[in-house]
Design brief:
- The complex is a heterodimer of chains A (about 90) and B (about 350).
- With about 90 residues, chain A is an alpha+beta fold.
- Chain A contains 2 helices and 5 strands.
- Chain A has a two-stranded antiparallel ribbon with strand order 3-4.
- The longest helix of chain A has 18 residues.
- Chain B folds into 4 domains: about 60 residues, no CATH class; about 100 residues, no CATH class; about 100 residues; about 40 residues, no CATH class.
- Chain B is built from 3 helices and 21 strands.
- The longest helix of chain B is centred in the last third of the chain and has 20 residues.
- Chain B is globular, with a radius of gyration of 26 Å.
- In chain B, about 40% of the residues are buried.
- The chains are: A alpha+beta (about 90), B mainly beta (about 350).
- The interface between A and B is large, with 79 and 79 residues.
């Protein structure tokens, strides 16, 4: 469906406003469901605890690590820690 | 052979915190781990920040908003260009690209498609968009601000951090892989870098001195030309016609020990503190910014989107019943779409700790 067709269906004439609502709607759809999915791989650095999420991310579906619970270079889903470690680490966190 | 590891994560704001269970299997069944006295109440010491580096070791699967479409097939060095990393120039995100034998001019063919290939230039707009992929941080849509002639592709994406950079400087190089400001100047390079950082250099007449380098060590000094960076590895994107790097493969990053050429006459050296992040830039991007643009959704979901826009319009007009009705329809169509993809009996696989 083109933007113009959607505007006609809802009876809207302002393109800028329509585009803003459409973009909001696309975001909302990906919060509820999964219309567009991709993966990003990040280098794990020694003693670095915090990593940025990808800038275009709406919702996380899965987080996997290489060699988690295996030695065959497979990526496997990792668990969420209920409590972060409270003891200071080598990187000062 | 890689060893088995155990990770977990928690969330801090917009960041993921990755922790690793710190124990190793020794010979036989012997466990090597902190002593009893070192373990906290909940065994905290066992969970630490990652204890070793793993290239591409963390994988995040996520949903994104389809605000753009890449309409042509990606072909390396036609409409897909690998970059070595990124920096921040004037507060804006800039991607950095260098070949082994040349620094890249983003305004020359083929890289010039970053400003000429955007199909988002519709409806009288003069907007140039790129889509970044394979990055650990910057995946997604960015708008091009400047296609630099010395490796820098500056975008309009604001970055909430600063990285030091200097342009058109008197900087010298020697064959001990050292870089330093020229005597009489005020550029104390070692004050801004640490071992393990990355630096992108351009402007040298000798291509061996240009590109992205890791910093092996720094030697601070109160004398300008003794405040030095010692460079370690040089990183470059591959060029098919380059006899040295072609074997690495176009989709991989070439790396080799830095081999600087002595140079002490240049006054236009650019130095950027950078982040290494081998990723790619796609051009030929059609951005959702015009009435004639196609919304990248299946027909059924496009109907749901109509209800969403109607709901927002009703909300603006304070017609709250209408808004609630349209939002309900929006969610109903989304749920129907989700359930339409599920067929047949559902089976639950037993977990690895299940009782057999």
């Amino acid at each position: 469906m083109k933007v113009k067709e959607l505007m006609e269906r809802v009876g809207m004439t302002q393109t800028g406003r329509a585009l803003a609502y459409i973009k909001d709607g696309l975001d909302e759809m990906n919060m509820y469901g999964e219309t567009h999915v991709k993966t990003a791989r990040i280098d794990i650095k020694e003693n670095q605890r915090f990593y940025d999420f990808p800038s275009d991310m709406i919702k996380v579906i899965d987080i996997r690590c290489k060699n988690h619970g295996n030695a065959a270079d497979e990526f496997r889903t990792i668990s969420r820690a209920v409590n972060p470690p409270t003891t200071e680490d080598a990187d000062g966190i | 052979m890689a060893s088995s590891k155990y990770y977990a994560y928690y969330i801090r704001g917009r960041k993921i915190a990755l922790i690793q269970h710190d124990y190793t299997l020794g010979s036989g069944q012997t466990l090597s781990q902190p002593g009893l006295n070192a373990v906290g109440v909940r065994g905290d010491v066992l969970w630490k920040s990652p204890t070793e580096a793993v290239s591409d070791g963390l994988e995040i699967e996520y949903t994104y908003s389809p605000r753009y479409q890449v309409l042509s097939n990606a072909a390396v060095d036609v409409n897909k260009f690998y970059v070595n990393g990124w920096t921040v120039i004037g507060g804006y995100l800039a991607f950095l690209r260098a070949r082994r034998s040349t620094i890249i001019n983003w305004s020359s063919s083929p890289e010039s498609t970053v400003t000429s290939g955007s199909a988002g230039d519709t409806g009288g707009n003069t907007l140039d968009y790129i889509v970044v992929g394979g990055s650990s941080r910057w995946n997604g849509l960015h708008r091009v601000q400047t296609a630099g002639t010395e490796g820098q592709l500056v975008t309009y994406t604001k970055v909430p951090e600063t990285l030091p950079y200097w342009e058109d400087q008197n900087v010298d190089f020697n064959t001990d892989e050292e870089v330093y400001g020229r005597s009489g100047g005020s550029l104390y390079l070692a004050d801004y870098f640490s071992a393990g950082d990355y630096v992108f250099i351009s402007g040298s007449n000798d291509e061996a001195n240009n590109g992205l380098f890791s910093v092996d060590s720094v030697s601070a000094s109160a004398t300008v030309n003794s405040s030095k960076l010692t460079l370690g590895t040089r990183y470059a994107v591959v060029n098919s016609s380059d006899a040295t790097s072609y074997a690495t493969g176009l989709d991989n990053e070439y790396s080799a020990d830095a081999a600087l050429a002595a140079e002490s006459s240049q006054s236009d050296i650019n130095i950027y503190k950078a982040n290494r992040d081998f990723s790619y830039v796609l051009t030929d991007v059609n951005v959702l910014n015009d009435e004639s643009d196609e919304i990248d959704l299946p027909d059924y979901l496009a109907k749901a989107l109509v209800y969403y826009v109607k709901a927002k319009m009703a909300e603006d007009g304070m017609e709250l019943e209408q808004k609630e009705y349209n939002m309900r329809e929006f969610k109903r169509l989304l749920e129907k779409n989700e359930s339409s993809k599920i067929w047949g009996a559902r089976r639950i696989g037993s977990g690895e700790t299940a009782i057999k």
